[in-house]
Design brief:
By secondary structure, the chain is of the alpha+beta class. It has one domain. It is 22% helix and 16% strand.
Length: 328
């Protein structure tokens, strides 16, 4: 305790904190901080999930606007077949030289993410889409690397610009990632038969609402595949390029896949967010759930505990399965 003299002989007593009192205050602050941090993290996680669902809602509506204009959903991606792009996409032969490829060529490679741009209020960017050019064309570098919030889940901590490599590890070009992927359905051979699959999207696909016999609200359209798990260009397939497990991804092994996995995912042998997932699987940064846009335009999360039978039924457009609404 300390005192000081003032004019007139009076004095003021000043009382300081004791060491015990200071330790008690620090302990109280620590307890409050410990209670507050999880609450803040929970709020942030909920906000990120809501933002992700909003992105998927916009993408789902864009798919339906595309269908309204063209009478079909966009293709998973566009590629040459026997030296030609199907006339529905381009009424002439694609004559550019394709780069060295892994398994099969995928040029020009424009994917569903590019075709939806006019329906996502991205008309200036959509003006760059030209299927006479490969997505690898050097003149499209700024196009490929443009970051789009609608294709970026707020919780995807791996999203951003990256370098696409070929199978030998050589750089092909820069691109910006997509946190979402199109449903190829149930397809055991998606990597070598990307034109197959019983989902909504495939190579050069022209699936219509009328082709969805299982019910639009029970069929996957677009789902999560975060860049923290496997980075892929939002613009489409970069022919000759590969998609790899992102370093540090929460899975047990690193895997390399060819082009189709850049724009599509399929259901086959693993549940969602499986610890042995590969780049053609769905994978979400949200705890316990993977978000999807369904073919009716609705959006909702599917639990990572959903069985394979349920996932295959949701992935297929005309499998005739009966799905328990409590199963996912």
């Amino acid at each position: 305790m300390a005192s000081s003299s003032l004019a007139g002989g009076s004095s003021v007593v000043r009382r300081a904190f004791t060491l015990v009192e200071l330790l008690v205050v620090i302990a109280i602050v620590a307890v409050l901080t410990g209670l507050l941090i999880p609450a803040v993290q929970k709020v942030r996680a909920a906000a990120a999930k809501a933002g992700c669902l909003n992105n998927l809602k916009q993408i789902g509506l864009a798919c339906h606007h595309f269908h309204h204009v063209y009478g079909r959903f966009p293709p998973g991606y566009v590629a040459e077949v026997d030296g030609e792009i199907p006339k529905v996409f381009l009424p002439q032969v694609y004559d550019a030289v394709s780069p060295r490829v892994f398994i099969i060529p995928h040029a020009p490679g424009w994917g569903w993410g590019s075709f939806l741009l006019p329906f996502l209020e991205q008309e200036p960017l959509a003006a760059f889409v030209n299927v006479r050019k490969s997505t690898l064309d050097p003149s499209l570098a700024n196009f490929r690397t443009t970051a789009l919030s609608v294709y970026t889940c707020p919780a995807d901590y791996g999203a951003g610009r990256y370098t696409v490599h070929n199978v030998d590890g050589e750089p092909l070009g820069e691109s910006t990632t997509n946190s979402y992927t199109a449903s190829n359905g149930f397809n055991p051979n998606m990597l070598v038969e990307p034109y197959n699959g019983n989902g909504i999207f495939a190579r050069n696909s022209r699936i219509t609402i009328g082709d969805v016999a299982d019910g639009l609200g029970q069929t996957f359209l677009i789902g999560e595949k975060g860049a923290f798990f496997a980075r892929a260009p939002w613009a489409g397939v970069m022919s000759g390029g590969v998609i790899e497990t992102t370093p540090g991804a929460p899975v047990f092994r690193s895997v390399m896949h060819p082009g189709p996995s850049m724009v599509m995912a399929r259901v086959l042998r693993r549940q969602l967010n499986d610890e042995y997932a590969e780049p053609y699987d769905y994978f979400s940064p949200h705890a316990g759930v993977v978000n999807f846009a369904f073919a009716d335009g609705s959006v909702r999360g599917v639990r990572t505990t959903a069985s394979l039978d349920v996932l295959i039924a949701l992935a297929s457009r005309a499998g005739g399965e009966v799905i328990d609404p409590d199963g996912y």
